[in-house]
Model the fold of this input.
Amino acid sequence: MRVLVADDDETSRLIAQAALHDLGHECLTASDGAEAWEAVLSGHPDVVISDWIMPGLTGLELCQRIRNRNAGDYTYLILLTSQESVAQAHEGMSAGADDYLIKPLDRDDLEVRLIAAARVTYLHSQLARQRGELEDLNLELITVARRDSLTGLSNRRALDEEFEKLEARVTRYGHRYSIALMDIDHFKSFNDLYGHQAGDQALREVAARLAAATRKGDSLYRYGGEEFLCVLPERARPGGSVAVERMRAGVEQLAICHRGNANGVLTISAGLSTLDPGASRPVDEVLREADQALYRAKQLGRNRVEQMTVAVVP
Amino acid sequence: MANCALTLSDEREPPRWRDAVEPILDLEIIGRLERLGEAVGGNLVSDLSALFLTDAAKLVAELSEALVRHDHATLCRAAHTLRGSSANFGATGLGRVCERLEAVGVNDDPANVVALVGEVGSELDLVRAALDTWLSTV
Done:
């Protein structure tokens, strides 16, 4: 271990240094409290053995500073007290010291105390490592919880969070967004005809094709069972519908066989709506409009893109 | 113990002589340091004694100055430092006197304080002599 000895008395320091070398530890020294604090910050000792009374900063103050510093690595603190000062030991331990040694410093005594110090610092380093692992795991969970495991797309939870940001950007910065809601045509019958495994595979392929058709800045979500949603920033209606039409065509070109569908391959229908800054409508309403447009696309024969034809507020 | 009768006759002072149970040098502590020195390779005890005697002499000078200036804080601090290094070095008797000096109050009888500082000086002389003997025999 790396041990810092803080003592204003050079004789004491020399004895401690000799004892520590004999015990196989690395030894740093400081001749007053301020120097000790510097050494703690720059030398990162595992253990600090500090005298009680020192110029600059007392052992107690040093103790409090070390405990209040909130560093990742734990510093084990041993206070040196005079023989008769049980009160000092009590005060020191209450201020955050882990142990105390009575002067004069004895090599064998020190050896015993350092066994405990090694154990405690090891436990603290283990704890810090586990805490780090837990944080990594949490970050991973946050990502996992926002991703659809089947398609690898972002899921509904991620979309809900995105919508909050979206509304803020529309009201605050006047950004414009198009929202496309897409649904695989006759997907229930696809599952019935080819089985759920084939259904899952089709969902994956459609998702991959839609993702490939999105532009940088567009975000694609798996909205529900066979529904997908795409947020297209800064797209006025014509621009938005061109992009969504590309997606629709892309899925059709996959040519996934679907006997239950009119043209024999798997297709999607899409409904498009726009979140205009001038209109200042809530996202929910825009979503409802996209849903209505999607319904109309289904009504008009599927495999097509429809958009809301309400008057645009300038 | 030769000066016992002398001190006893002094009415201003309580009887004071070296307490037989307080050794000038605690040989057990010196022995431990000796073994430690052997373990790390070096003349630890002779290095330490040189250091200790130099520091102690400085501190005794500080005590005398503090006494003249009636600087109670410096007096107590110097006594504390000397007590600590005496304890480390096994100079038990010197440590005890320093402990008494450290405990004197601001309003204590100055004569008592003067006597204690004097005692620190003479105790240090004893330690120096004892250390010389020890080092010459080892």
Q: What stands out?
A: Chain A touches chain B at residues 7-12, 14-15, 18-19, 21-22, 51, 53, 82-83, 103-107 (CB under 8 Å). The radius of gyration of chain A is 34 Å. The CA atoms of residues 96 and 243 of chain A lie 64 Å apart. The longest helix of chain A spans residues 107-145.
